[in-house]
Amino acid sequence: MCLVAGRATAAFESAAGAGRGIAGPGYQRHALHRHGGHAHAARHRVHALPVRAVPADCHCRIGGGVVDRVPPAPSPASCVPGSRGCLGAGGHGSGRHALHNFAEGSFCGALINGLSSNGLDRVVLVASLTVLSLTLFACILDAHLEARTAVLVTSLSQANQELTHLAMHDNLTGLPNRVLLTERIEQAMARADETGGCFALMFMDLDGFKPVNDAFGHHTGDLLLRQVALRLRQNVNRHDTLARVGGDEFVLLIELDDQQDALTVATRQVSEISNPFLIGEHQLQISLSIGICIYPGHGATQHELLVNADAAMYHTKAAGKNGHSFFDVSMNCNARNQLQLSQDLRTALRHKHFCLYYQPKFDALSGLPIGAEALLRWNHPERGVLGPDLFIAMAEKTGLIIQIGEWVLDEACRQMREWYTEGYSHWRISVNLSALQFRHSGLVATVADTLARHQLPANCLTLEITETTAMDDADASLGVLNRLSEMGMDLSIDDFGTGYSSLMYLKRLPANEIKIDRGFVRDLEHDTDDAAIVSAIVAVGQALNLRIVAEGVETTLQQRFLTHLGCDSLQGFLLGHPMPAEQFLEDIRAAESRIAFDVQESEAKASAF
C-alpha cells in the first residue's frame, strides 16, 4: 500500500476479480450519503477495515500504475504498529510503519530506504564503465585526429613544394623558367662581386623552328623542344643553369674559370643542335643561334645582361644563323631598331597600313596584258612607302607573315573580282606565298574560303612559291600542291633555277608554270652562261608542258631574246612598273589602246600593199 501527499486513494484489485476494498475521500463521501450523515460511524468502519479484507494477490497502484505486490494478509494479531498493513486517508500509525516494509530493491522501497549496497555497486560499476568508455573513445578519436592532422600537414607541405616548383620551372621541358633564371643571375652576380669571378650568359634561339611548328602542328613542335632541351642539358654542368624563357628561346648561365670556356661551350651547343632530330616519322633539321655576354663587363643588372645577350643573338642571325656572337656595344642600336620594327609591324597590321601594288604581265607574242602580280607595300606613317625587302624578314621571324599573307590573298582576290566584273575575266592574279604560309596547316582552307567570299573562279588565281620552298620536305609540299591544284587554280614555281630541284621531282609537281629568276635575265645580254641557262630552263619547261614566265625584263634586247626562245609571258620595268590598282588599270587601258592602234596601223599598211 502506498501514501501519496496525504491524499492517497488505494485500490486493491484481485487478479480473479473478487473482493474490493476502498479507502479514501471518495469512500467517505459515499458512506455519508448512504447513512444519512452518520459520518463518525463511517469513518470508524473505514479505519477499522482489516488488512485481511485485501486478497492475497492484490497490487498497489499510485495514479493507476502498479508499483509493488502486496503480500498476503497477515493474522489479526499482526495488525499492530510496525506490521505490514493498510493505511487509509486517516493516516493511522499502522500505515506509516508499513511504508518501511516494501520489498528490498523495489522502486517504493528504494524511495523510502535508499539503495542497498548491491544496488550501489551496480550503479558505480555502470558509471565507471561509462566514464572509461568515453575516455577510451576520446583517446582513440584524439589519436585519429592527430594522425589525420599529420597527414594533412604533410600533404600541404608537398603541395606547397609542387606549387613552388611549378612557379619556377617550365611546364613543357622541366627547365627553370625566367623567374628562377633571374634569381640565379642575381646570385651569380653577387658571387662574382664577392670572389672576383665571372660568368657567361648565353641567349639561344632555334633557327627554323617556326616552319616546323606551322607545318606539323604544335604537338610535333613540343616534342622537338623537349629533345632540344635534353641535348642542351647534356653539355651543362650540375651547378650551371639552363632555362627556357620563350617559345624556342633558351638561356644558359655558366660560371667561368676562363672567358675562353664560353666560346667552347657555345661551339659545342651549336654543333649538338645541328644534328637531325627524329620526331615520329619526321627527320627534322634545325640550327642554333647564340648571343654571349660576360659579367662583369657587358651589363650591370640581370636585365641588361639578358638584353645584351639577346642583341648578340640577333647579330648571329643577321650574320647567317647557326653560330654565336659575343656582345658588342654597337649591337644595342641594331637591337632597338629590330624591336621598333616588330612593334611597327604589329601596328601596321592592326591599323591596315599595308597596301598592294600590281605589276602587269604581258603575252610575249601579242604584247597584250594577261594579268598581274600582287606585290606588298607598307605605307609607313614616318618612313613612307616601304618595299617588302625591308620588313618581310622581321614578319617571318615574328610569325606575323601568316596574318599579313592572309590579308594579301584576300585583298588580291577582292581586286581581281572587280576587274573580273569589268570584263577582264581572262586575267589571272598572282599571289606569292611565303615558306611559313605555305607550311601553315590552314592554307588550303584559307584559299578556299577567300575564293568563295569574293565569288572568284579558282582559275583566276595563281599561287607562286619558290623552288626552295617546294623542295623543302618534298612529300609534304607535294600533298599541299595537289590539294590546291584540285581546286582549279594555277601553281607557279618562282625563282626557278636558283634552287636544287631535280627534273624527276619537277615532273611530279602539279605546277602550271615556271618563272625564270631575274638574276639570269639581267645579264643574259653580256653573259653567255646566263643565256645558256635561260635557254635550258625554257627547254625544260616546254618539255614538261609548262608555261614559262621571264621576270626582270628591262631592255628591248632582253624582250626580243626571251620571246625568240619561246617564253610565254614577260614581266619587268620595261613593260610596266608596280603601281596601285587605280593607276594600274589606267595604264593597262592605255597600253591596250596603243596596241589596238598599232594593229590597225599594221593592217592598214598591209592592205595598202
UniProtKB/TrEMBL annotation:
It comes from Pseudomonas cannabina. Gene3D superfamilies: 3.30.70.270, EAL domain. Its cofactor is Mg(2+). Residues 197-329 form the GGDEF domain. This is cyclic-guanylate-specific phosphodiesterase. GO terms for biological process: cellular response to nitric oxide. NCBIfam families: GGDEF. Residues 338-592 form the EAL domain. It is found in: Cell inner membrane. It catalyses: 3',3'-c-di-GMP + H2O = 5'-phosphoguanylyl(3'->5')guanosine + H(+). Its EC number is 3.1.4.52. GO terms for molecular function: cyclic-guanylate-specific phosphodiesterase activity. Transmembrane segments: none annotated. It is an enzyme of class 3 (hydrolase). Its main location: membrane. One of its GO terms (cellular component) is plasma membrane. Keywords: c-di-GMP.
